[in-house]
Amino acid sequence: MAAFVLKTFVFQVFVIPSGSMMGTLQxxxxxxxxxxxxxxxxxxxxxxxxxxxxxxxxxxSAPAGAGGVLGGVRSALSWVGLAPSADEKDLIxxxxxxxxxxxxxxxxxxxxxxxxxxxxxYLYPGATPCDDYPxxxxxxxxxxxxxxxxxxxxxxxxxYQQLHxxxxxxxxxxxxxxxARVLLWPLPRWASLPxxxxxxxxx
Length: 203
Description:
Mean pLDDT: 85
Largest sheet: 8 strands, antiparallel
Helix content: 10-25%
Strand content: 25-35%
Distance between the termini: 44 Å
Low-confidence stretches: 1-9, 70-82
Oligomer: single chain
CATH architecture: Ribbon
Order of helices and strands: HEEHEHEEEEEEHEEE
CATH class: Mainly Beta
Shape: globular
Number of domains: 1
Number of strands: 12
Structural class: alpha+beta
C-alpha cells in the first residue's frame, strides 16, 4: 500500500530513452518526477521540465530518435515508482509557454514568448531554437502548454506536432503527470532541475 501511494501521489523515477532533452538530460538518465503538485492543483510554469501523457499521436508521429519516456528498466522496481512500467507511454519536455501566451518561432531567430526573446543556455550545443520546425506565431489556448525539447534538432515537440499532427502542438494541462525536479542518475551528474533565469523576464 505504501508503495502504491508513493508512486501514485508523491514521486516516480522516469528513464530518459532518447536525446530530445540533451543539453539538460541524456539518454539513460533517471529523473525524479513530482506527482504531488499536480494532484494539489498546481499548474506547470514556464521553464519547468515536465512529464506528460501523449496528447494523441505524438509518439506514433515522432521521427526516429525523438521519442518519449518509454522503455528502460522493466522490473519490480516499477511498482514502487523507481522505474517506468512496461505500458507507459509518456513524454518529457520543457514548458516554454502556458495558456494565453504567444510564441514566435522562426528560422534564424531566437524563440520569443510574449515578445521577449529567450536566452537559452540549456540548449544542446549547436542546436538552433526554431530552424527545424519554424511554426511562426502561435497563441497557446487556455489550460494548455507549449513544450519543446532542449535538443531542438532532435525533438518531436510542439513545433513538430503543430506542423505534422492533426491534433496540433498543444498539451492539455490535465495530461501533465508531474514536474521533473532532480536528475538522480548517473550519480556524478546528480543535480536539481530549476527553472532557467530567462523565463523570469517573460511577461
